[in-house]
Write a structure and sequence with these properties.
33% helix, 11 helices, TIM Barrel, Immunoglobulin-like, 2 domains, eight-stranded parallel β-sheet, alpha/beta, 20 strands, 20% strand, four-stranded antiparallel β-sheet, globular
Length: 483
């Protein structure tokens, strides 16, 4: 059992870092008298720190834009280097020493703000940290580094962490190694969590890493990434190696880019076939680079990903240029869910929460199980393991439909239901009986909304009592991962 970790952003409700500044967005430029966010272009250094400000201007960022008071209240410790002035919104400065401030935050009042109002261009404000209550001293951070101990403890039963969203994989613009995210950057929201930081995290766990290689990464990027992982990950750690994420999926730009490359190489006449075949080819090329760097494939789980609902797609990807011979696993995302269109919205609302759960348990779950069986037959035919890159419930309204709060409230209620836990029980049991391998739930922690209820729990301060699906998933994590 593994887990997909929630993407890094200021509204991330998982709170993985004790330094909440790492998750804020890029600086917002403001000018007195102008509308919000309409300040001049900021003068930034290569790490994203503000080097200078024009008259009547400032730069600011929000911290912990999390609803309902679901982040710690108390005294946050702010440290920085350089000369300038910091101000705060929705927080009170209670202590100010040399380059260290203590601010009082009440999470019930919502997000708070950090502003740079003055900075010396010769020694500008930089290396800002905003530590949660309890982590204001160096001694308090020595054991856990930047990591929130509650976050580390929550997922200690997991044996795989898929960092797709941590890496900002979908729509990634990364092409060359020089463009990669670096640990010294101001925040980790430009291009994802740096690989060095991911390695540090994995090294603090008993889990392996599921890595998604950016779809536009050139060979030098791939080789340097392999070297970094080889040198920084503990020797006992395995790497689940995947080319991007859902390249078969036409809703993602990586699909369109793969289709364009595949057609340019005359792999197929249709975009979808070209994308499938380019996925196979590029995956094998990435495998070969990693194998060369690692001196073989012993530490690698080489993945060919496919569309769960369509075993035909799997067959096409596996067989193109005999890609299956270079892989270890076929990966799918066998969600149990209903993507409700605007035409189906009224039907779903009429069913009510219990009726939606009836449909999920008695119609959709059996269909999902049947698809898993068919995909297992494909994997078996080519001697590959069947694994899951994403899994879980998939109740969500599509565009227009998800604007109806009656529907959204029913889908959220279904996710809170004890019946959802029972559906998860049947789901995981079926996966086990069919012979599925590693399964990574999507996702870890995230607020439930019109966009879906993907998180096992919504907030970092919730427990198993708050979510039956979380409780059941952790039970199976403990069961499977003891083997």
């Amino acid at each position: 059992m593994g887990i997909n970790l929630a993407g890094v952003c200021d509204w991330n409700t998982e709170l993985p870092f004790v330094d909440v500044f790492l998750e804020t967005r890029q600086w917002i430029s403001q000018r007195k008298g102008e509308s919000w966010g309409k300040g001049p272009a900021l003068d930034l250094d290569s790490d994203g720190w503000v080097k200078s400000l024009k008259n009547d201007c400032w730069a600011e960022v929000p911290l912990c834009t999390i609803n309902g008071g679901h982040f710690p209240s108390g005294i946050y410790t702010v440290t920085y280097e350089g000369e300038g002035e910091l101000e705060f919104g929705n927080a009170k400065v209670v202590s100010k020493k040399e380059k260290t401030l203590e601010i009082e935050v009440d999470s019930k009042n919502g997000a708070f703000w950090l502003r740079i109002t003055k900075t010396d261009p010769e020694d500008y404000v930089r290396n800002i940290h905003v530590y949660m209550p309890g982590f204001g001293t160096k001694e308090s951070r020595e054991k856990c580094g930047i990591w929130n101990p509650v976050f580390l403890s929550r997922w200690k039963s997991m044996k795989i962490f898929r960092t797709m969203d941590w890496q900002a994989t979908n729509g990634s613009t990364l092409k060359t190694w020089s463009e990669r995210p670096r640990p010294e950057e101001a925040v980790y929201t430009r291009a994802g969590v740096p690989y060095e930081v991911i390695c540090d995290f994995i090294g603090r766990t008993e889990a392996d890493l599921w890595l998604c290689v950016p779809d536009q990464a050139d060979d030098e990027f791939v080789r340097n990434l392999a070297v970094l992982l080889r040198d920084r990950l503990p020797l006992e750690k395995k790497i689940y190696l995947e080319y991007s994420n859902e390249v078969w999926n036409g809703s993602f730009v990586q699909n369109h880019r793969a289709a364009e490359k595949g057609r340019a190489m005359k792999m197929a006449e249709t975009d979808w076939e070209a994308a499938w075949r380019y996925t196979a080819k590029r995956s094998v090329e990435i495998f070969a680079i990693f194998e060369d760097v690692f001196g073989g494939s012993e530490r690698l789980i080489r993945i060919l990903p496919s569309q769960s609902a369509n075993p035909y797609v799997s067959e096409q990807i596996l067989t193109f240029e005999e890609a299956w011979k270079h892989a270890d696993a076929l990966a799918i995302a066998p969600y149990v869910g209903w993507s409700i269109s605007s035409e189906e919205k009224d039907e779903a609302i009429a069913l009510g929460t219990e009726g939606i759960l009836d449909r999920l348990e008695n119609k959709i779950l059996p269909e999902t199980i049947d698809t898993i069986k068919k995909q297992k037959e494909v994997a078996d035919r080519y001697g590959l393991a069947l694994i899951s890159y994403e899994a879980g419930q998939h109740l969500v309204g599509l565009w227009v439909a998800n604007d109806d709060e009656r529907l959204n409230s029913q889908l959220i209620a279904a996710n809170r239901s004890e019946r959802m836990g029972k559906i998860y029980e049947k789901y995981f049991q079926a996966w086990e009986e069919i012979g599925g391998g590693a399964l990574c739930h999507f996702s870890s922690v995230g607020e439930w909304s019109k966009w879906g209820s993907w998180g096992l729990i919504e907030y970092a301060d919730e427990t198993e009592d708050d979510s039956p699906k979380y409780r059941v998933t952790m039970k199976y994590a403990q069961k499977w991962n003891k083997r």
